[in-house]
Structure formats: structure tokens, C-alpha cells
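Ligand: pyridoxal-5'-phosphate. Inputs:
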Amino acid sequence: MTQRIRYYSTNRKAPTADLRRALLQGQAGDRGLFMPEIFPQWGAGELASLVGRSYAEVATSVLRRFTEGALEATELRRLCDDAYDFEVPLEHVTGRTHVMRLDRGPTASFKDFAARMMARWMACFIRDSGDELVVLTATSGDTGSAVAHAFHGVERIRVLVLFPIAEVSDRQRKQMTTLGGNVTTIAIDGKFDDCQRMVKRAFADPALADIPLTSANSINIGRLLPQSVYYVYAYTRLADVATSEPVIFSVPSGNFGDMMGGMIAGRMGLPVRRFIIATNANDEVPSFLATGRYERIEPSRVCISNAMNVGHPSNLARLVDLYGGRMDEQGTLHRPPDLERLRRDLYAISIDDDRTRQTIQEAYEQFGLVLEPHGAVGWAGLMQYLREHPQEADVLSVSLETAHPAKFPEEIEACIGVAPDPPPSLADLDRREESYGSLPADYEPFCELLLKEFKS
Ligand SMILES: *Cc1c(COP(=O)(O)O)cnc(C)c1O
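Predicted complex:
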């Protein structure tokens, strides 16, 4: 229990780091991604002791294994109480299937879970040193607003968000551009992949070495660890913990940070039978699992589940690493992972827009279940899996709903004839004033802006 976990780089050419350093640095010096050296195991009875506990209590129990040595347990508990002050509904749908709604945070996507914890960790880690930070992040829709909200008003931390102008919905954009203060938002005339490439290049650029840049994208280990918690929480609420009942999770996936959170929970001993990873038409990972050959999709395909329009998932190197392979940040496979084992643990499927819309319709007609495009991709994946594996029909399953349907009112209304009511967090957006800059999808002007704004 008192073990202090260190974090290694998936490229294996940088020294290991403690949590504080891994978090503040974002990416390892060799451009690899940080991963915990060990996965602390649930002792007998530990999981059972979490049954019936609040989300904040479960979060404290899971996360303290990773924050040992970096944060006091009482402090962590305080941060969890503060970060997780919203509901995490688990809806029974039919048979043994459930939907977990991860959309009740302040920006109405599951990214609030990780962004809120990471912001609090970072604020703690720089509190005593007088350091300043510039959090640089690229978003395909929901990361930007979750990160901007999580850091808004935090002293000595400034946030710069890049987003693809034509790929985010009005509500998604307004969630980031109406904050002001320490949050700056830039619209890029390009795709999400362009934004991500610009951000990655800035991190590696020696000309920017004086700016204390850190990432809040899902490459940051601080974004992954908190995402292991809701898998554990769902399990303690729904499963027969005493018999280690197996569970299937279906995860709508883009950069695979959400799924990696589940993987971490699984490696800690959560009895996961299978992860269903459901992508939209950006099917590079389902193809990789099927063929063993990896080809990124360039440019990424534009789908209605826009937060998953990713042609080369930034967390894929982590997944490959966990299965004994090695992949660099370009997506070049230096050593193949254990594909057989991957296929045993994961079921990967691509769901196109037609099928996504059809799923939104059917889920509503059959079960009165209101899904938005991302959650519908996950639900369609689960339904397909259960059709192909009828012998698992009685296995407990949980499909993750990652955004609030009211973030996509036109799409939902077109599918089911009613527009979902916005939660309070989205309701007054239209009345707030927007402010954001614009840049082309070129590195140079972006680099100049960074130097002008942030170089001390
Ligand atoms: C970011 C996002 C996803 C994809 O999550 P990854 O961790 O990138 O796989 C799915 N749904 C919504 C609503 C998102 O915002």
C-alpha cells in the first residue's frame, strides 16, 4: 500500500518519473507516453468494501494507489469530494444491459471526470513551488471545454485550446469561448488532427523551451488514471462482487483514453470479461486488430460522433505497450503486440453514421433510451457483440454514454422527434459572450503566438 509507483515512457528512452513530474511534463522526453510501472492489485475484500460507497469514496480508494508519495490521502479525499459533486447515473436497459451516464459534469461530457481531477492535482503540485504552467490542448470538441472549465480561475495556470473550426458544434464551441480569464481559445482552419499535430510539435520545439508547457490531452497520464474510477464504481454498484462476477464494458472510442482507463482498472484486478471498443467510421483500430497491420487514417473521417473523429489515436501506443509491443508516436510499429491476447480481451467494431442514427432511433423506440451519437456508437457495439455471442446474453454489461444528448439537439431531434432538455450547465450558454482567435493550420504563426503570449 505504501508503494510509490513510478511512470515509464512507452518509447523506453527516457528515465522514469514520479507522478508529479509525469503529470507536469505531459509527454516523456523521448516523446513516449507515461505508464505506471506496476498496477496495484485489489486485495481480497478491498473491492467488496467499496460496495455502496459514494463516487468520491471509490475515486479516493482507486486513485490513492497512484498518488502515494505525491499527495496526502486526506488531501486526495478532499479533491475527490470537490471534483465529483455530480451524479453518475446507471440506467438499467434490458436483460443485464446498462448505460452509465458520464454526462452530468459541468461541461456535460465524460471528460469532466479526468479534467477536474487533473486540474486539482496540477494546482496542488505547483502550489508550493511558485511555478507557472501553460496548459496546451487540442480538442475535437469536448476536451477543450472540460479542460478549460476545470482550470478556469486556477492561479498561475493559463490554458490555450486549439479547436478545428468546422468540426465542433455550436454548443461545444460556446462552452470554451465564453469563459475568458485565464482561458484562451483559438479556432484552427483545419482538422482535429492538424490541431493535435501543432500541439505535439510545440511540445518538442526547442524554441519554446522557456515556456512551461504542459499537455492536458489524453496523452497526459493525469487524464487516464481518473478514468479508471467509473469502471470500478459501476462494478461495485451492479455486480455481485463477492463472486467476482464478470462484466462487459462497451466504450465509444476516439483517442482511446477512456478505454485505457478501463484497461488500468482491469489490470488492477477488476473482473472484466471483455472491452468492446466501438469507433465511428475512423476504423483504424478495428482494422489493426483484425489484420495486425496498422494504418492511420489521413485525413480523419468526419462523423456525427465528432469527438471520436480520430485517424491516429494518441493512446494506441499505450495499448500496444500493455500487450508487449512497441509503437512510436507516428504510429510505426516497432514490435507487434500479442494480437491473440488483444483479441481475447477486446472486441473492436466500427459503426458508421447511418448505423449510429438508426441506433439512436431504435434505442428510443424499444427502450425509451435517449442516446447521443457517441453513446449510440457504444450501444450499437454492445448490441452487435451480444448478437454474435448469444451465450453471453446473461453477462452483466455496461455501455458508456459519454456526452449529454442536449449537446447535439438537431441530430437527436431528427432521429427521435424530440429535442432533449439541456442540463443547467448548457442552458444559459446562448446568452454568454464568445471570444476566440483564429489561425491557419500552420505551425509558424501558432509558434509566434505562443512566444508572444507566454514567453516571460
Ligand atoms: C472524447 C470523447 C470520446 C472519445 O474518448 P477517447 O478517450 O478519446 O477515446 C467519446 N465520446 C465523447 C462524448 C467524447 O467527448
